[in-house]
Fold these 2 entries.
Entry 1:
Amino acid sequence: MTRLTAFFLLLFPVLASAAGGGHESGHGEAEAKHEVSAKALPLLEHSSMASWLTNSVFVAGLVTLILLWFFRSAMQRKALIPDTKQNFVELIVEFLYGQVENIVGAKIAPSAFPLLATIFIYVTVSNWFGLLPGVGTIGLSDHIGALHSTTHVATPLLRPGTADMNLTLGIALCSLLAWLFITIREMGVWGTLMHIFGPKGGLKGGLKYALMPIFFIVGLIEVISILFRPMTLSLRLYGNVFAGENLLHTMSSLVKSGNTTIDFLSSVLVPLPFYFLEIMVGVLQGMVFALLCAVFIKLSTTHDEEHDEAHAAH
Amino acid sequence: MAILDQLGIDYPKIIAQIIVFGLVYLILSKYAFGPVTALLELRRSRIADGEANLDKIKENLSSSQAQAAAALEKANAEANRIVKEATDAAAAIAEAKKQDAVAEAQSIITKAKEATELERTRVMDELKRDFGRLVIDTTTKVTGKTLGSEDHARLNKEALAQIAV
């Protein structure tokens, strides 16, 4: 299995190189065309009804099916003594649950865990999916014909889900809603408002009332920062994955010697180290996204008394 | 808004991606996280039960061992008591038997002595009688005269006196 993956990882630059070909003219317009598009492209350009169906949504659907198939097959014959697949799933779930419980606490963990674990798994698998051969390199070209080697794929059929701002923003909005739901359920509406706008630090008496306007202004700033969270979360993830796509694309077509053999070999060897980097970045970004969401939940569901006690203990 | 267009942000696409993500969330919650966490919880509770049972078994074992030791000690004490009683009884019986045997022997000895005494008396009486008769017969033959009953009594008396000496 590992060898097969390695083979495909090696094959990807070859395919990319083959698709990118050795027919470079080298002028500016062609170079500009080699850049990865910043946005996902619709698969059915002429259909206004299916404008939502982009290559990224298509890959997101594929990833969903893969996850469905994997988890369904792993848990179909669930038993107290697990087989290899079930064991693997249990390992992931147990590890993630432990991490979530450590951050948000044992009380909030059961309600926060499914969303946070889904974010981590979905984002990580989507990121890694972008490293598979064919993603970004198979699609429609400006030049179509039998045995025609094209210099650029105009509309790739597959684009990593997380390289689409719509997906990262969608996940971030979902996490914001989940954060709001969990916070209100734990603290209540009044408790949430007091947590944001109310005086902190156990102030009492005249000082409390004197500082209330300041805490109110701080609360307004807090609200703005909360509203900006989806943007920061989604841009961070999108930026990393999109940058990774660009990096691999650039590295695979970096050497333009004019010699087909050298160009072919360099398109295989040059991007190879960056694949390992992207594998790491893929899991790291999934973890960062999920951990930040967990921290946001933890911060908003911590009662002030607990906070004060924790401070006193320190 | 140019930046949104540049990044390809579009409401239908966001909604489509949210639906896809929502599906993943539902699928994983239903087929992975729910069953797995339930299974892990079941396994954890079984392990906890097993450990509790193990502790209970250990406790029972130590209690049983203590009970067995106590029973063994009691049995040993009982056995010792019985052996001691048996030994004492045997010694008492042996002593009684010995006393009986001594008494029996004493009785036999006494009876034998009495019998011997009686036999000796009888023999002495016979001897005295025979000796008296012999003295009288001898005296009669030597003297040649017939002895009267007074002579007989005197000779018997003298002969018996001589025998006694």
Entry 2:
Amino acid sequence: MQIKFEQFAATSMLGSPDSPPRDNGEILFQRHWEGRAFGMAIALSKKGHYEWEDFRQGLIASIAEWEATHCKDDPDWDYYLRWLSSLESLVLESSLVSEEELEERTRLMLAEADTALPQS
Amino acid sequence: MTENVDRETYSAARVRALESLLIEKGIITGETVDKVIDFFEKDMGPFNGARIVAKAWVDPEFKERLLADTPSAIAELSFPRGMAGAEGENMAAVANTPEVHNLIVCTMCSCYPWPVLGLPPYWFKDPTFRARAIREPRKVLKEFGLDIDESKEVKVWDTSAQIRWFVLPERPDGTEGWTEEQLAAIVTPESMQGAAKVAVPA
């Protein structure tokens, strides 16, 4: 049976705590970076850099960790922040990128964002 | 330093940092990421089901084929690859009529035909919803704002790996002469689950 990896990945999350936000049946990205983080996590697994199940378990654990220290209806809840944190951990753990590199590049991007944004 | 940067700016920068490093190292390309996003935003979703419904509304012969053999009828439409494959081959459409209203529930949401219906809403996977939908479907439908006349039969279908059901809703009045595209635009995922009727926007 032929099934696309993207389809397998999304199907495995449905009905589970890691199931992604959606609106009227369509996957919902509220901010540009959410889509990029979502796409990266699936693309890395699709290319064989880690097992999809490992990403899912990391995400489920990250969600559980947040829930253990916050109320259920905490307005600060952010699915894609959990997603990003699991993606980061797995990328570092799989030695695809080193922590120093990531910190250094993040600083660079922040500096860029600083100069790119018009200051009022 | 990071304490002074707001969370949004930081997250956006972090994602850009990650992606730029992965691309630089040749681990992935930006196009691979674009393709994954496109798959979810453009290839798979409720817009596919809406196209099937609209076609069945304007083409009675297609409708007949759709109800008799759903997978081969779907295969007639040129959908992105994967659609007629694993998820599509066990699909079965049930038609709402003046006599019967159909409602879909799911035991295992991993069996939900989302390439056609889109990702299921949160309430759909709720075990209480499923149990109640089977026990008292009229009451549950009423809570959704659907008052089904007592004379009408309500059928509940449990979608599973064996058969992935979806509802062919009734075409609303006031849509005579509409094109397939116009019709597809008003078909909602809820209407294909049987949790709503298709309404003509005011």
